[in-house]
Design brief:
Lyase, Ornithine Decarboxylase, Chain A, domain 1, lyase, about 375 residues, D-ser_dehydrat-like_dom, D-serine ammonia-lyase activity, D-ser_dehydrat-like_sf, alpha/beta, D-TA family PLP-dependent enzyme
């Protein structure tokens, strides 16, 4: 029997998100092997969004996590995380929400990103007024141009300010180079190394001016195997925990296994050569072109030719052999937003489902 085949699939409604527990555990182990130790990992929870998977990482020694939202930070704390970095610059009501979260989980260090002096001043004022300290990382723009302070003549001024305030604790730098995604590892590594040169110069300036050596959290999944070679860098892969078709094809040096699939059923055969499945935009991430959404593991000679909200239309070669009600198992091209489409996931262990996990992190708000 193929590894993904579930013995009680007839009990599962579709479309459904499947999490293969043994494979998740193995992917976590491989992440730690690449990093050299669990201590070096700030695993990004935006991919999985489930407290149970955070707990699985904690069981293997990972205690630090990165996330994208306050809700994801809360599920990490719920699971037992000790240090959680929200990889956004928090503004407006989110500053107050972080204060509430810090009070709710006083044993957890919650940090966020800063790249702007005005925001730094607001954090210092608001946290101080509440008798708390704002834990921060200076977000550095190393070329992606999505967020972060440019590596220019002013960045040291912001570093000094963050280091000097009574109600701000600066832990270090956050450097995200997610724009570098060359398929060839050596080419990708060369681009990543080139982009890190100015970061190294900045680190030298920091130490030359008498500051302690800062923590540096760098990269995501594509850069993981490059930054892991820098012994003093903390790495923050995320997709590795579940893996997907997109990175599986591009990042050949990374040894991870597919651990999250979408289960769908054939619901119609409207004309010869065409089948329809119950997997529309709401069941699999649809931000990419239609040929980069799902790869079916138990179907060959097919083409996804159309999707609406609840339907996927597939052109198939062996139309006669397929029947309405047949189950298809597919690997998402982009697993992170696919997980975000589901309220719960079926958990597969020994090719059988006996429990479900709530995808709590897909919510914008849990308790604060």
């Amino acid at each position: 029997m193929s590894w993904y085949k579930i013995t009680n699939e007839y009990e599962l409604d579709s479309p459904a998100l499947l999490i293969y527990k043994e494979r998740v555990k193995e992917n976590i182990r491989k992440m730690i092997d690449i990093a050299g130790s669990a201590e070096r990992l700030f695993t990004h929870v935006k991919t999985n969004k489930m407290p149970e998977i955070v707990k699985m990482m904690l069981e293997q020694g990972i205690t630090k996590f990165k996330c994208a939202t306050i809700a994801e930070a809360e599920i990490s704390a719920m699971a037992g995380a000790k240090f959680v970095l929200i990889a956004h610059q928090l503004v407006g009501p989110k500053i107050d929400r972080l204060i509430q979260l810090s009070r709710l989980y006083p044993a957890v260090t919650f940090a966020s990103l800063i790249d702007t002096l005005d925001v730094a001043r607001e954090h210092n004022q608001v946290f101080g007024a509440n008798g708390l300290v704002s834990h921060v990382f200076l977000d550095v723009n190393s070329g992606m141009d999505r967020s972060g302070h440019p590596l220019d003549e002013n960045i040291m001024d912001l570093y000094r300010y963050l280091s000097s305030q009574a109600d701000i604790k600066l832990h270090g730098l956050h450097v995200y180079d997610g724009h570098i995604r060359a398929v060839d590892f050596e080419e990708r590594k060369h681009e990543i190394d080139e982009g890190f040169v100015d970061v190294k110069h900045f680190l030298e300036t920091i130490e030359a001016q008498g500051f302690r050596k800062p923590m540096v959290i760098a990269g995501g999944t594509p850069a993981f195997t490059s930054h892991a070679l820098r012994s003093e860098i903390y790495c923050s892969p995320g997709t590795c925990v579940l893996w997907d078709w997109g990175y599986g094809d591009k990042l050949n040096e990374q040894p991870f296994e597919f651990a999250a699939l979408v289960l769908t059923r054939i619901i119609s055969k409207p004309q010869k050569g065409i089948i329809t499945v119950d997997m529309g935009h709401k069941a699999v991430s649809a931000e990419n072109p239609i040929d980069k959404r799902i790869r079916f593991l138990n179907l060959s000679d097919y083409e996804l030719i159309g999707q609406s909200e609840e339907h996927g239309v597939v052109k198939v070669k062996d139309w006669e052999a397929l029947k309405v009600g047949d189950v298809l198992y597919g690997v998402p091209y982009h697993v992170c937003p696919t997980v975000n489409l589901y309220d719960e996931a079926y958990v597969v262990e020994n090719q059988h489902v006996e429990e479900t996990w709530q995808v709590l992190g897909r919510r914008r708000k849990i308790s604060v």
